[in-house]
Design brief:
Elements (H helix, E strand, L loop, with lengths): L3 H4 L22 E3 L1 H7 L2 E6 L9 H14 L4 E5 L3 H13 L2 E7 L5 H9 L3 E5 L3 H14 L3 E2 L5 H7 L1 H10 L4 E5 L4 H15 L8 E7 L4 H4 L21 H10 L3 E5 L1 H15 L5 H15 L8 E6 L7 H6 L11 H8 L2
Parallel strand pairs: 2-10, 3-4, 3-6, 4-5, 7-8, 7-10, 8-9
Antiparallel strand pairs: 1-2
Helix pairs in contact: 3-4, 3-7, 4-5, 7-9, 8-9, 9-11, 12-13
The chain binds pyridoxal-5'-phosphate (PLP).
Length: 346
């Protein structure tokens, strides 16, 4: 499969002179989930965005952001990040030969994500502050110096991310609902744009209803106000002031969708279930879409039998600490047949 710029070139803001910085992103699996479907009383499909090159959907936006940065002759790119943006920016910047600086909230980034940014040679800086603090500082730096911002305020990020909607329409048609986790609300905005463009092109009859799912401790969209000290185990969406709030409100309203919040315990419950019942290992933030869907089924927002696509935004390997802390412990055994037999036979 080509990268997503080659696949959707006609619908993206690239020209013949744009160097394509790609790691083969996009074209991710859309998997039927029969066991979870039965549990939830819907026809559920999972969009596995963890299958992107750095393990999250951020690669869809980053291929475009770095291609345009390279076209413009950028020397340095920078982002504030809860983790996945930095992993993706670092990899695509390495591919482009551009210097990359990432600013993360100290102690609040999953281990795999930090390791990825470090391995790709990025300058990784942990601040004594939140993501929202980091973003404010990074924006100021970009105003003062010739540094290119690759946070989702960069308009090319959403252009790349909208392609996930095209893929779903091509493979499945238009589902009744699309459920996804919401932090800065860039991705829900991008999906809305992608589905609307598919409708305009005659590829789809309508936009699915969008279900924006948040962690209860960082539910700035659900509550309608920013949150000073967001807190959740779903660190990728530990954000108090969503950058794309207004567009996301419009996306939910125009699609006749909704925002919903789920507690950390519910997020962890569905995080475990999707692994154990479907063999799909995602990060806790991604499971927020399933926890939110369960809530929306319980209160009748999502009707029985609806066809639903849940976007699983990032790979489980991103956050090995949460995985090991919330699974059965590893057994220790002497290296003997008798001991192993006892364990293997239960
Ligand atoms: C970035 C991210 C999100 C949130 O996306 P927004 O565009 O900020 O709403 C959700 N899940 C994962 C795994 C992410 O990396």
């Amino acid at each position: 499969m080509p990268g997503l710029i080659d696949r959707y070139r006609a619908r993206l803001p690239v020209g013949p002179a744009t160097p394509i910085i790609s790691l083969g992103e996009g074209s991710t699996p859309l998997l039927a989930a029969p066991r979870l479907s039965e549990l939830l009383g819907v026809d559920l499909h999972l969009k596995l965005e963890g299958a992107n090159p750095t393990g999250s959907f951020k690669d869809r936006g980053m291929t475009l952001a770095l291609s345009k940065a390279a076209e413009d002759g950028a020397r340095t790119v920078i982002c504030a990040s809860t983790g996945n943006t930095s992993a993706s920016a670092a990899a695509y910047a390495a591919r482009a030969g551009i210097r990359c600086v990432v600013v993360v909230p100290g102690g609040k980034v999953a281990l795999g994500k930090l390791a990825q940014a470090q391995a790709a040679g990025a300058v990784v800086c942990a601040i004594d502050g939140s993501f929202d603090d980091g973003l404010r500082l990074v924006l100021e730096l970009c105003e003062r110096h010739p540094i290119t911002l690759v946070n989702n305020l960069n308009p090319y990020r959403l252009e790349g991310q909208k392609t996930a909607a095209f893929e779903i329409v091509e493979e499945l048609g238009v589902p009744d609902w699309l459920a996804l986790p919401v932090g800065n609300a860039g991705n829900i905005t991008a999906y809305h744009r992608g589905f609307r463009e598919a409708v305009a092109a005659g590829d789809a009859a309508q936009c699915p209803r969008l279900l924006g799912c948040q962690a209860a401790g960082a539910a700035a969209m659900v509550r309608g106000v920013d949150i000073g000290d967001p807190e959740t185990i779903a660190t990728a969406i530990r954000i108090g002031a969503p950058i794309r709030r207004d567009e996301a409100v419009r996306a939910a309203r125009e699609s006749e969708g909704a925002f919903v919040a789920a507690a950390d315990e519910e997020i962890l419950e569905w995080y475990g279930r999707v692994s154990v019942l479907e063999g799909v290992f995602c990060e806790p933030s991604s499971a927020t879409s399933l926890a939110g869907l369960a809530r929306a089924r319980a209160d009748g927002t999502v009707e029985e039998g609806a066809r639903v696509v849940c976007v699983l935004t990032g790979h489980g390997l991103k956050d090995p600490e949460t995985a090991t802390a919330h699974s059965a412990p590893t057994l220790r055994s002497p290296a003997t047949l008798a001991a192993l037999e006892r364990i293997a036979l239960g």
